[in-house]
Every structure is written in C-alpha cells, then in structure tokens.
Design a protein that fits this description.
elongated, 84% helix, mainly alpha
C-alpha cells in the first residue's frame, strides 16, 4: 500500500499540472496571436487617432508595427524603429524578453498537454478517456474563473491593472515613457487588446469545457 502512495502522488501532480497548463496555454496562444496580428495594430491606430497624435501617416505607422513584430520575433532592429528614444528602446528590449517568455510557456504547456494525453492513452488505453474529459472540464473552469476576475478588474479600473502589470514585470519606473511609444500604443489600445484576448480565451475555454463535460455526462449515463 505504501508503495502505491508515490505513484498516486505523481499521478495527482500530473493531473494538477495538466489542468493548470490549459489556462496558461490558451492565454499565451492568444497573446502570441495578438502580438503578431498587424490588423489589431491598424485597428488601434485608427480608433485612437494615432496618426494625428504623432504626425506619422497611416503607412508609416503600419511600417512601425511590422518592424516591431519583426523585432520581437527575430531581435533585428529596423530603420523604422529609429523614431524611439533610448528609454523606449530599453523598454522594448524588456518587452521582447517578456514576449519570448510567453512563447516558451506556450510551447512548453502545449508539449506537456500532448505528452500527458498520449502517455495516458498509452498507459490506460480507453480507460483514460473519462479522466481526460474531467481534466478538460477542470481546466476550462479554472480558465474562466481566473479570467473573469481579470476581466472584471479590467472593466472596473484598467489603469490600476495596467500599472500593476508593469510594476510586476518591469523594474522600477522603466515602463513610464514619454515619446512616440506611448502615443502609438495608447492605454486604450491595450485595454481593447486585453479584453479581446480575454474574450477569445473564455470562448475557447467554454468549447473545451463543453467537450469535456459532454463526455463526462455521457460516461455517467452509461454507468447509470
């Protein structure tokens, strides 16, 4: 009996990590999409009259957005980014590091979800399916619960949430800028992007939860 305790502990740990990986994977996947979606930048530029605020044409703003996407993915600094001052350049370097961490988390959680699923079916065969369904439902519930808290906070006081995020991930006041960067990427732009990402993740979590819940209920009915 004592010999089985470590195995049960490892199994419970593996299940817990699987459930935790679901919200991390969904959030980082949607963040990765948002970072690389140039149309999202264009939308923000138009909605917040960035061209008028900065004196840059729509074409120039688009080139800046494309160069920023290229920079965070490759580390190559383009000529269109020379408009940023030294403090903004340092901040963008920090942002690039944070985005790289996001990419690594997405890839690591995806790898774990796939490996755990394949391992479960290899070890337990069809008996693993009900467990997988329950874990999917659990991950969905955890994702929605966490994002509802963040979403409500964003709607109530996005400025506080925005500041708290930057104080958590950036040192000192390095994120407080005065130049082109805060005028191109306004607080309103980040608010809209955050709510879009939260909405997308909630929808995806609901789909995952619905699939998991369906198979959980079907299994209970079959046993009943």
């Amino acid at each position: 009996m004592a010999e089985k305790r470590p195995l049960k502990f490892l199994g419970a740990l593996g299940v817990g990590i699987f459930i935790l990986c679901i919200p991390i994977f969904l959030v980082t996947s949607n963040l990765r999409w948002a970072v690389n979606e140039v149309h999202l930048y264009e939308y923000g530029f138009g909605k917040y009259d960035v061209s008028e605020e900065t004196g840059l044409s729509d074409g120039e703003l688009l080139e800046v957005a494309q160069e920023l996407i290229h920079y965070v993915n490759t580390g190559e600094w383009g000529e269109d980014l020379e408009i940023f001052n030294e403090r903004e350049v340092a901040h963008l370097k920090d942002v690039k590091g944070l985005i790289e961490l996001c990419y690594h988390l997405q890839e690591a959680t995806f790898g774990y979800l796939i490996a755990f699923t394949l391992g479960g079916f290899f070890w337990q065969r069809k008996r693993f399916a009900p467990s997988l369904a329950r874990m999917m439902a659990g991950g969905s519930i955890l994702t929605i619960a966490l994002l509802l808290v963040v979403g409500i906070a964003a709607l109530v006081n996005f400025q506080w949430l925005f500041g708290a995020f930057h104080r958590l991930f950036f040192s000192g006041d390095s994120w407080i800028l005065s130049g082109y960067l805060p005028r191109i990427f306004t607080e309103g732009f980040f608010s809209d992007a955050a709510l879009l990402i939260i909405g997308a993740v909630v929808v995806e979590a609901l789909v995952i939860g619905a699939i998991g819940g369906f198979f959980v209920l079907r299994g209970r009915r079959a046993r009943g």
